[in-house]
Amino acid sequence: MSSRDRTCFGVIEDARFETRKRRANKPQPWIMRKFAIGLWLAVAGYVSYVYVGRVCKSMLARDGEVTASLPVGVVLLVIYSILLLLTLWSYAKVVFTSPGLARDFTSQTERPTYDQNHHPSYMTPDLRGVSYDQASTVQTHTSDHLQRTQDSRTQSSFTLQRDFPTSLSSGPSENVPSRTLGTPIPRDTHNHATGHHRGSSQATTYSTPSYHITNTNAIRSPEEARVRDVLANPEAPYVPDNIALPPINTGSTRSRGREYNRFESDQRRNFDEISRRPPTTPILSPENRYCSRCKIVKPYRAHHCRACGTCVLRYDHHCPWIGQCVGAFNQKFFINFLFWGSVGCWWTFGSLLGLFHQYQSSVASDLQIPIAIALAGLFGFFATGLLMTQVSLTLNNQTTVESMQAKAMKEREQAALGREFRWWQFGAKRKTRSRWNQEWGRISKEGNIWWLGNYRANWEAVMGKNVWWWFLPVGRCPDDGMNYPVNPRFDAQGRWTRRDEWPEELR
After folding, report:
1. Contact, 199 vs 10, CB < 8 A?
2. Is 305 a catalytic site residue?
3. Which of 27, 62, 93, 290 could cross-link 473 (Cys pair, CB 3.0–4.6 Å)?
4. 319, 325, 345, 477: which is the annotated catalytic residue?
């Protein structure tokens, strides 16, 4: 059976596409989103059973495998109970506190119209950030540089001429006038490619232009000029075998050295022309904040969560371990939970590991203690890494989504420097970054649209000004989740400006 018969003329593919589209627009089932909560509680309950029911109980009763002193057992039990209580308290707060749903604070509306003066074109890479490359301003390119560029392009091309009859013509062929590289030659209207769209019964015709490449300096004799008409068309039916390409005049070793030195001098001169090109998308404009799924204009820093199927205020990420998103109203409790969870896991890991090493001979046959040690260490590493990430993001007043955008900008910048400089030119790369920072500022600070000026202000914007709130799962979100102050180094549309455009007191 052919693939055409199996797919029923594309009907099956269309049905699969529509099914995936419907699933993408629907939230995950409730049982899937809450499954990890039961898993975490089961792991915590098992580790608590091993720690309290087998280790601490045997020390207090002095009749088990661990025969430590009574005071040691009491201290271990009290500390573990306090850490477990704080961890469960923080976990309950982050699970039962809503992150803040945008639909509860905004009403549905029609999609705003685009302002052509501020909205970038979809035909450019501006939506994901303009790539870093050499500055293309007219002021940086002098006339002699353009002349050298044109000369180098002319020297690197050669001539293709028509001097043979094709299978479509019966008479003698005519010479085709030579054209420079990139100049299209009109083709016969019958020489075209056709393409079909899935689900359409009509064919769409695409004209494929051909190109001729020329350089009259490369031909030395009429024998060399017998170049067949090989169009720069990948869909050409065949290429004649008896084709004689003109030799490329590479010049002497001395001339090649002069050309290379001139290229190197041009490259060194162009190093100072490499500029930083931040994204120019007006991210604060209503048309760029519209959610087509929720039919609302998202508040600042809100994003749509595919797992929950709704827009979340100050969206950080969707955490399966709490069964919902981390957002504006529960991020503080999420950090509290990570802190006490990390402390509790490492206390459990260290104390059990010490007791197991001390009483290894008597507890060697009990495999539950090693299993509890492994689980505590695994969750300890996971919680500590996530805690460090959240603390770093909070100090910079960024969410996970916003940090990924800043990271992508740094990667594009690093790739641009890698293209323009050799791998050993560390000093040139450092000077270029320093020049960019003098002109624009640092990406993670001045280039952060939500930067409040210092780490303390950023931290208090999430954790509150009360020091007790930093450690205990009490209090509430300091802001309303809807309004956030914008870095004055950005314009009203949310685009990063140069240092000379900043307010006078910030320069």
Report:
1. yes
2. no
3. 93
4. 319
